[in-house]
Amino acid sequence: MLASGSPDFPFCVFWANEDWRRTWDGGRNEVLVAQRYSQEDDRAFIRTLLPAFRDPRYIRVLGQPLLLVYRCDTLPDAIRTFDTWRAVCIEAGEMPPFIVKADTTGGGTPLEVGADASVAFPPHRLESPLLRADPPPGLRPDFEGRLYDARSVSARAACAPEPDHLHFQTVVPMWDNTPRRQHDGTIFLNASPAVFRASLRDCFMRARTMLPPGQRFVFVNAWNEWAEGAYLEPDIAHGRAYLEAAMEARHLPADGERIADVVARLARG
H or E segment at 32? Predict the structure, then answer.
């Protein structure tokens, strides 16, 4: 991609820093390649990204190359790692990366790990029983996974309190990772292009009203994560409906309100 200059499309790197496990057939515990860390690797990793950062298509935040990290909690010393990355970039004549911590399994704020911002990563952090869905007809009797109502998940995200740090929202079109996890997977029931469009539009409104210029980002999980049932690519069931919903969500009414604002206004009477 870097060598060819194609496709002419903005991009950034999201580092999935975790063990590579045999998960495509339900084998969750077999480690194929372990993720290991060292100060030498910290320097080598960021040097490897310098050619990407210098590509004119690379996404930047106020001039800094955008770099997302999936599991900050597994880094032995995240602050030291991120400081190393910044120092190597500056030494190479590059702006330090704008580091975004994914809100996955680990808690804490981006400031606590030395990152610049955080990003939601559904279906992580959906512990509330209020989001659960009733089993659908025909569900396998040995299913031990989790069923969530996509409508409740979207409503909860829309009404969640704002964190006191820079935070980006993420919308997931659908979710069903039973092809990978099988009988203990996670499924979003009642997902639809309409729910996705409404949730994405609400995130756009939030970005417009709550985030500063140059930092108004909204993410989607994902483009083609077929093994987890999360994708925007056209399929037989929906055609291009999810892509069209994403396009329609971008058209925001000038006087539009976020769902959280409507709920707060109604609560005040």
Answer: strand 31-33
The overall average pLDDT reported for the chain is 92
Do 128 and 87 belong together in one domain?
no
Assessment of whether the complete model's pTM goes beyond 0.85: yes
Q: What is the count of structural domains for the chain?
A: 2
Examine the domain organization and report whether 238 and 197 are in the same domain.
yes
User: Over 80: is that where the pLDDT of 269 sits?
Assistant: no
Tokens representing 42?
A: 């910290």
Write out pLDDT tens, residues 222-262.
999 999 999 999 999 999 999 999 999 999 888 888 888 88
Q: Name the token pair of 101.
A: 């911590």
Look up tokens 């031990």; give the residue: 144
How do residues 177-202 score in pLDDT, each as one tens digit? 998 888 889 999 999 999 999 999 99
- Residues 68 and 126 both lie in one domain: no
From CA 114, how far away is CA 99, in angstroms rounded?
A: 8
State which of 98, 120, 142 marks the end of a domain.
120
CA dihedral of residues 169, 172, 173, 177 (deg, nearest 10): 180
Tell me, yes or no, whether 269 and 145 share the same domain: yes
- Decide which of 69, 91, 120 is a domain's last residue: 120
- What Cα–Cα distance (Å) separates residue 250 from each residue in 180, 202, 203, 245, 254? 32, 10, 10, 9, 12
Q: Cα–Cα distance between 180 and 25 in angstroms, integer?
A: 5
Higher pLDDT pick, 32 / 65: 65
